[in-house]
């Protein structure tokens, strides 16, 4: 394979990696290895793809080979950490992330991956610190943005829905994969209108897809005017901030002897509680009636 053909192959690999079409990337990389068997980057690509396809033993083997051949230590150790995390080898995962940070202490991606590991193992305070650090280091990095979104969805029902859409990109046609990829990227960045537009285009290409239909429905009712106060609450720190501030204000006014103010705050507090419990079901109902 001459230099021009090699560059063309690498361009194709980057293109399909960007769309998360991992089976196609593996096919292309094996073409490259047939002509250049000692290329560390090809083994690295294989490791990434096998990891993404949940074939963790093959991922580890290829990442280790990339490391032996001299590929970037930070990148290899980060992905090995991900492999060990997925296979619940917690100690090895932490060691890999620390090795990656030793090579580059300012890596936003490694901080995000390490945060996900610590969240998985129940070390929530340290995990939160690491995720904040990742966002400080590079708030625009695609992987950091995605990790932060998934971090917030650890126990949310939408997590499974998002993972299903990510798998859809691996098996769908190019145009659907592109629209889903752009939609997920917009969703991670809280650009809900853009996300809906891309998912709508993907759904028109695959109108039988239940995951796309469910997410579109959720995005539709999620923009309902009834939910505006909830969205404002999220921007100021979430419901816990309201609960803490509300209770603190009531206790404070009561301590000062301001009984009428305490009663008003109590009424407002319980009104908010009732609203927060009923707003989403009401928005869903109104959206269905209207639609």
Search tags:
single chain; 291 residues; mainly alpha; 16 helices; flat
Description of the molecule:
The protein has 291 residues and is mainly α. It contains 16 helices and no strands. It has helices at residues 3-18, 22-35, 40-52, 56-68, 73-86, 90-103, 108-120, 124-137, 142-152, 158-171, 174-188, 192-205, 210-222, 228-235, 239-255, 259-290. Helix 10 runs antiparallel to helix 11. The radius of gyration is 23 Å and the shape is flat. It starts with a helix and ends with a helix. The model has no long low-confidence stretch (mean pLDDT 84).
Q: Could you tell me the radius of gyration in angstroms?
A: 23 Å
* Oligomerization category of the chains in this entry: single chain
From the spread of the alpha carbons, the general shape counts as: flat
The profile of the biggest β sheet is: none
Question: What is the count of β-strands?
Answer: 0
Low-confidence runs (pLDDT<50, min 5 residues)? none
The run of helices and strands is: HHHHHHHHHHHHHHHH
The structural class is: mainly alpha
The mean pLDDT is 84
Distance between the termini: 57 Å
Strand content: under 5%
User: Approximately how much helix is present in the residues?
Assistant: over 70%
In DSSP terms (H or I, runs of 4 or more residues), the helix count works out at: 16
């Amino acid at each position: 394979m001459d230099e021009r053909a090699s560059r063309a192959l690498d361009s194709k690999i980057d293109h399909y990696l960007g769309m998360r079409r991992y089976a196609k990337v593996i096919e292309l990389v094996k073409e490259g290895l047939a002509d250049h068997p000692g290329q560390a980057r090809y083994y690295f690509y294989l490791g990434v793809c096998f990891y993404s396809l949940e074939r963790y033993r093959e991922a580890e083997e290829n990442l280790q080979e990339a490391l032996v051949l001299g590929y970037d230590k930070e990148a290899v150790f980060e992905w090995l950490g991900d492999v060990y995390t997925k296979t619940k080898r917690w100690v090895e995962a932490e060691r890999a992330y620390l090795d990656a940070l030793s090579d580059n202490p300012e890596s936003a991606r490694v901080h995000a991956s390490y945060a996900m590991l610590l969240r998985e193992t129940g070390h929530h305070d340290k995990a939160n610190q690491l995720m904040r650090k990742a966002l400080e280091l590079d708030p625009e990095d695609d992987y950091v943005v995605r990790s932060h979104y998934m971090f917030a969805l650890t126990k949310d029902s939408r997590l499974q829905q998002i993972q299903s859409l990510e798998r859809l990109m691996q098996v769908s046609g190019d145009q659907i994969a592109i629209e889903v990829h752009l939609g997920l990227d917009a969703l991670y960045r809280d650009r809900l209108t853009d996300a809906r537009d891309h998912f709508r285009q993907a759904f028109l290409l695959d109108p039988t897809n239940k995951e796309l239909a469910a997410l579109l429905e959720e995005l539709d009712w999620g923009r309902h005017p009834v939910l505006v106060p909830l969205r404002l609450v999220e921007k100021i720190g979430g419901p816990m901030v309201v609960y803490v501030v509300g209770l603190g204000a009531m206790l404070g006014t009561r301590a000062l002897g301001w009984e009428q103010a305490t009663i008003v705050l109590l009424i407002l507090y319980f009104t908010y509680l009732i609203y927060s419990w009923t707003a989403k079901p009401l928005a869903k109902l109104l959206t269905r009636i209207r639609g």
